[in-house]
Fold this sequence. Notes:
Blueprint: E1 12-18, H1 26-35, E2 39-45, H2 50-59, H3 71-79, E3 87-91, H4 97-106, E4 110-113, H5 121-134, E5 138-140, H6 148-158, E6 165-173, H7 186-189, H8 194-197, H9 202-217, E7 223-231, E8 242-249, E9 254-260, E10 270-276, E11 279-284, E12 290-295, E13 301-304, H10 328-347, H11 359-377, E14 382-384
Parallel strand pairs: 1-2, 1-3, 3-4, 4-5, 6-9
Antiparallel strand pairs: 6-10, 7-8, 7-14, 8-9, 10-11, 11-12, 12-13
Helix pairs in contact: 1-10, 4-5, 5-11, 9-11
Amino acid sequence: MINGEKTLDQPIRWAMIGGGKCSQIGYIHRSSALRDNSFKLVAGAFDINPERGKGFGISLGVDPDRCYPDYKTLFAEEAKREDGIEAVSITTPNSTHYEICKAALEAGMHVVCEKPLCFKTAEAEELEELANSKGLVVGVTYGYSGHQMIEQARQMVAHGDLGEIRLINMQFAHGAYHTAIENENPAIKWRMDPRSAGPSCVIADVGTHPLFLVEAIMPDFKITNLMCSRKSFVEGRALEDNAFVLMNLENGAQATMWASAINCGSLHGQKIRIIGSKASIEWWDERPNQLAYEVEGEPARVLERGAAYLYLEALEEDRISAGHPEGLFDAWSNLYRRFAIAIDKSKRGEKTDFWFPDIHAGVQGVKWVEKCVESADKGAIWVDY
């Protein structure tokens, strides 16, 4: 159990790019990074408007001289300081991720990046090669993977509790964009614009989340080919608001994905179901402390976070005893804690001996989106992976 003891000798000197006052996700990054004293926020370029960003940085307690107008100035000025930043979180629109991540790596900084890393597989692989060549950590914020019941599911698959895996059903299907909400909400509008969001809306925005959860639960999840159909139901949208994906896996299993923003009445709708030859498990992010476990021929049961009957690996990141619900902020805090430990090990020249959404996970997410778009745009045909 995590109990507040120091993980590192000294917190990692850290900056944010984006995540300003009106950001949807800036606060959860800061809250999660600072929670276990693993990171210390010492600098930032928080807003596209320099004055507004500086004012917000000061309100966070950042030295006014270290509230920069843009990421290029941040990197250049911090490099001159003996106490300059060691890591940076990128929380800007999708179209900027590649250039900022590349610049950060070239400046010798560890990176935590919002997904997607970029829009093209070749660019993602370039970032992976650059990070590996410099021995730098890149973490990708697939935040739901920090929930402990994901680790329980991973251990159940590894121990053979489900038997041979046959089917995987994934979905992230909410109803928040069932009308043209982007016309009134600037925070949503960029997600529907190919210039800022990239070649996909819901496939990239929500589909990659359950995809990574399954990749974490099943390390041998390898796609051989896939077929995707996507469509925009709301008139005037350039990008899809609904998509279906079929996937064949190397081990003979099959997988499906439903990604949607028009599932009326659904608050979130992110679920994963893994079906084996003996039993099935199902996890729903609106009830993240539970994992359904259904053995053929036996009564269905629900496993609870923090319970003594779980695998020990699923108890390591509990922050409070069983019965008290933990949420998304706890999950993100677990990921930032893993990022910090991975960065510290990298600084010491040590290898990481635990999993987290790393640069390779980011590459796979970009590749999956690219292949889905290719399949859909060619008429929903099968494409090799």
